[in-house]
Amino acid sequence: MSTNRKFLNFIDGAYVESGSGASFEDRNPIDGSLYALVTEAGEAEVDAAVSAARRALAGPWGKFSPAERSALLYKVADGITARFDEFLAAEIADTGKPVSLASHIDIPRGAANFKIFADTVKGAGSEFFETMQPGGVEAINYAIRTPKGVIAVICPWNLPLLLMTWKVGPALACGNAVVVKPSEETPATATLLGDVMNQAGIPQGVYNVVHGFGPNSAGEFLTKHPGVDAITFTGETVTGEAIMKQAAVGLRDVSFELGGKNPGIVFADCDFEATIEGMTRAVFANCGQVCLNTERVYVERPIFEKFTEALKANAETFKRGDPMDEATNQGPLISQEHRDKVLSYYGLAKSEGAQVVTGGGVPKMADNYAPGAWIEPTIWTGLDDGARAVREEIFGPCCHIRPFDSEDEVIALANDSHYGLATSIWSQDISRANRVAKRVEAGITWVNCWFLRDLRTPFGGSKRSGIGREGGLHSLEFYTELKNICVKL
Predict the structure, then answer these.
(1) Which of 63, 283, 336, 465 is the most exposed place for a label (fewest CB within 10 A)?
(2) Side-chain-side CA neighbours of residue 333 (13 Å)
């Protein structure tokens, strides 16, 4: 198979090849076909991108007012919307997700992030104090926010445009310049966005993209670069730890949203139908490839059997196939490599004594889709609490369901994890739900819902699930330096 499509690095407002000529393949996970070749950035290209970003900060971009930056970001959002179909096709080809998902979440939310943070910055206030000292000395103290500088943005592959703009939007709204390293699995929309930035009038060097891998490639070259002032990353915890070690040199700031092994807690008094609908999404949405997905489900014993059968029935209704068919509601995993990983956990769970309620393997697909990275939604019961399949993040469409008998028991089970990203609690007793929510160790807790987001609220995890918070004014805490000015009167 061959393709004429090639994704280049985007540096200082222009698409550029790598001096080494190195490239790698971008394959469509739907059928395994070659979608594009991708230019791999070396140290020279990463240095050029960081240098371009620093020049942009010293140039006109560094003098733009928040209102001027916001106006340009509105144009970027409108530019994505104007080329909606182009971005949609690129995202589907990269990720394999169905059009029913990508057209309603990935692209519109990816565009909206620029407007949301443009408005946030325009409306952000700060501190002001009148200071009186002995002897009649009077002063005023006020705080201002200044850009942090060059931000390295390391992006994941599960929601490529949405999660990239979730970082780039506030970074640019605050006046920073960025160098984006998209996942090697999903380079398309970050590359395409460079053209939109140019058309919107974003100055050269403000937005840069370098392609490649992690160790000894663009990712490592970028996070080690002394010209980078801060690093934001979404991805695996192990990778976050490696980046944090590199960021320690020069004391660069970090913002991490990392792994999770998220619990869902279902009480017997829940609205059963609404809970099954919500938990079906929480476990299986995007083929289980969302950091917020639920992989541990705890169900109060009186409804354990009923719940398990109902979730099984829903898991067996997913339609796989043509991603452009609106009826398709489950895509493949991101790659064959990732499917091998998830399948290894399917096998591990069985070896650890799991009872397979449904799934556990690879579905039979039509010949044209057979080479894709398809996998069955899978439910287990019967595993010990210490089983690896219960404790380690799998990042696939699977969960283990376990009964519980009391509040204290389920809280202890939910908290028995190195992770602390998200949880959902399902009960019509709101007092109990609130009581449990306060005790569960998670950065995000939903009550009687899942993935209902207000982008002004703090987003992030505890324990090994991350450092820092993003969203609304909380993003400003990372993307700006807060400076105090004291004026003696």
Answers:
(1) 63
(2) 24
Token pair 């602390």 is at which residue? 420
Given a cut of 60, is residue 150 above it in pLDDT? yes
pLDDT digits (tens, 9 = 90+) for 155-168: 999 999 999 999 99
- The set of residues, in sequence order, having a beta carbon less than 8 Å from that of 63 and lying 6+ positions away, is none
Q: Annotated catalytic sites, by residue?
A: 257, 291
CA distance 305 to 283: 18
Give pLDDT, residue 449.
98
Among 474, 295, 307, 472, residue whose Cα is nearest residue 404: 307
Task: Give the HSE-up count for residue 415: Cα atoms under 13 Å, Cβ half-sphere.
Answer: 12
Mean pLDDT of 381-387: 98
Q: Please enumerate in sequence order all residues whose Cβ is within 8 A of that of 142, keeping only pairs 6 or more positions apart, or say none.
A: 126, 127, 128, 129, 484, 485, 487
Contacts of 386 (CB under 8 A, 6+ apart): none
Per-residue pLDDT tens over the stretch 5-63: 999 999 999 999 999 999 999 999 999 999 999 999 999 999 999 999 999 999 999 99
Please name the amino acid found at residue 248. Answer: A
